[in-house]
Amino acid sequence: MIYTASSSRVRAIVPSDQRWLEMLDAVMRRMGIPVRDCILGDDRLVVTVHGQGGLPFSLVLEPSKRGQPAFREIGPFALSYHGKQQLDQPDMKVLLLFEKIVRRLGDRIPRKLKGFAALVHDIKDDPELVLRKLFPFVTVERSAGPLGDSVEVLVRTTSRCNQACPFCSAPTHSQPAEDIVLACARQAAELLPGATFSLTGGEPTLKDSFQAEVREALAQPGLREVQVQTNALAFGTRIDPRNLEPADRLSFFVSLHATDPATYDACTGTTGMLQHARAGIDELLQAGHRVTLNTVACSLNVDHLETMAGAIPAGTGGRPVEWHLSALICPHDNPAAEGVLVRYSRLVPAVLRATEVATERGIRTSSLLSSTHAAVPPCVLPQTHEVDRRWLLDENREVELPPDRMKAEGCRGCPENKRCPGVPAAYGRRYGLDELKPLVRGSGE
Q: Of 120, 137, 153, which one is at a domain's C-terminal end?
């Protein structure tokens, strides 16, 4: 059972076994701590407060570990603060008061900070931020396309996976319980109506509650689409996709990085699984589901893409397959991804040849610009892709360059600079940035 509150002052998601968080929140507010939100997730408690000068900072309570830097040790916990380099006197009083409250409550705070729960008081924030606060295992991606802006809520229902792709970009989170994921679907429909709700991981089919999570998301009319991101192995071995009724709002985004067994094994870190993945894709198609095949192009499969284009299934009946190709993201927490990078000057021609073959077979393919941070910079594409570039990038949205991305100095003069996500920092370190050339406004038009 989950306690849910939604009003003009607070939004809360608190399971019955986490009601201690409500008690802690009430005590802090009664003692004068200016609480913005209390978030329990990934084995730690984060309390964000209104700091001196209007700048918020966070009080972090987590299990103490040897060698872990902390402001204080409180029994089994380490207390620290984030968001400010140094606290002034009023903020330090808040930190010391929080320490005092934690000590007084003692065993009323669980020694192991497991599970997820949240109370968000500052709900004047934008709905996307509120959703991410309520559910720390969620990320939200926005993109622009020919039919307008779209919003995708990525829900990492588990970090477990039955494959070990060397280029995996999935962050690690604690596994949310079924009732938390169901609550997430309801809150996403309310806070971000019209969004796509994507169950991902890890491998979401590994959870016993997978089918219940899909059905609950589909039951929310506020969600435009429910997508399952999967490697399809489960549908070829143990889950009958006919248990999920085909619907225009339900789709499957299936990772298939090769159709050659040896290449597939190299891309997935497995042995002999391709037959099960192909069987799973066939089962999904025979059951009448919408399927998009997702291929991450890298050094392991770049020379195989054209052959792959002639071997992937084209779909069945009124459900044609779509093929989505993307470049590597190279997240900072997966250094192995850098080892399978391939230069864009080699990658782009290989992808274009493959998409030509797929198109001749009636398979719709996506542009290399359509994957937000898994896209390539528009300047590395031929000028014939100028039309795609205009409608795939939002003229009014500026992409913030995160620390793990890079751009060349000349990018400042490019008309796409505000929207282009640049290249992964690992790519820049390995190959340099000479391939990045500022586009000339009006070229190709």
A: 120
